[in-house]
Specification:
The chain contains 8 helices and 12 strands. It is α+β, with helices and mostly antiparallel strands. Strands 1, 2, 3, 4, 5, 6, 7, 8, 9, 10, 11 and 12 form a 12-stranded antiparallel sheet that branches. The longest helix has 26 residues.
Length: about 300
């Protein structure tokens, strides 16, 4: 159940939701399958099937957003719309204008939507009520925005704040590469991305390849800044840090896998064991990462 792509936020110091009050708030927007004409349906579902909307364990909450989207490719819409436009042209003796084409497309979407395939995606959110973290397991910004949007509708006042650090991640990662030295408890791995700050936006990527420090310095001196850097924390977790303070491709290493495999139990016990291990380790990683980035910047 390890989160793979982390978007990290701060909980407001005024956070006072218990598992029960959070459950009640989320129930107002529990997932309901959309109608035949709904292109997108969003709602909260149980993180574990058969349980409530909030899985609570040792001051840690796990919740889950379900997004159900109808797949209606634009190529299909355009193909059917063109066929209807040809029929209309034959009837009225001239090609449909822009307004008519727009109306035809809207009609086509309405007709095809009930036959469109639906794809459901679940996005998990971890809430650390002790250390005031909120973490979304989402690779894309659009998915993160869906989570934030429904949280804002479900919780009043909205309890989530952006996370800022004294050093920007891009500047810090660039400095680590120049000095050829990772911060305390971290090591630099092989994947690196450098992007030009000029209008050209030129990009240099090293994938599973360690660049020589002198080569990296030349790129940096030419105006490039590090935007993605693969790191390992404490020989326990590997990840890629981005200049937007996101953690991608998060993976526990063998030492943690072996530690968890020692524990025996049924499915529920193993789920709780995974959750306990993940939240404890990531909390320590966040502390070290904030220290490496100069500490958290308080925004008034």
């Amino acid at each position: 159940m390890w989160f793979k792509n982390l978007r990290i936020f701060r909980l407001s110091p005024e956070w006072d939701y218990t598992a029960d009050t959070l459950e009640a708030a989320l129930q107002e927007h529990a997932f309901q399958p959309g109608t035949s004409q709904d292109p997108l349906s969003l709602g909260w579902v149980a993180p574990r099937e058969g349980e409530g909307l909030v899985h609570a364990l040792n001051d840690q909450f796990l919740i889950c957003l379900r997004s159900e989207k109808k797949l209606l490719p634009s190529t299909v819409i355009n193909q059917v719309a063109r066929a209807k436009a040809r029929d209309m042209e034959a009837e009225q003796g001239y090609k449909p204008g822009r307004k008519q084409m727009s109306e035809i497309k809207e009609q086509v979407i309405t007709e095809l939507m009930p036959r469109a395939f639906s794809i459901a995606r679940d996005t998990r959110i971890w809430i650390d009520t002790k250390n005031l973290w909120l973490v979304v397991d989402a690779a894309s910004a659009a998915t993160g925005d869906e989570v934030m949007g429904l949280l804002a509708k479900s919780l009043n006042p909205f309890p989530v704040l952006p996370l800022y650090t004294e050093l920007s991640p891009g500047a810090a990662m660039t400095s680590w590469l120049i000095e050829d030295e990772a911060p305390t408890n971290f090591s630099i791995d092989q994947d690196t991305e450098l992007r030009s700050t000029s209008e050209s936006r030129a990009v240099v990527r090293y994938v599973r390849h360690s660049a020589e420090p002198e080569e990296l310095r030349r790129h940096i001196e030419s105006g490039k800044q590090c935007t993605r850097l693969a790191l390992t924390w404490d020989d326990r977790i590997s990840f890629v840090l981005t200049d937007g303070l996101e953690l991608k491709r998060v993976a526990p290493l063998d030492v943690l896998k072996e530690q968890n495999e020692v524990l025996a139990g049924d499915e529920a016990e193993l789920f709780n064991s995974d959750m306990t291990l993940m939240t404890a380790e990531l909390t320590k990683l966040f502390d070290d990462l904030l220290n490496a980035l100069g500490g958290e910047k308080k925004v008034v």
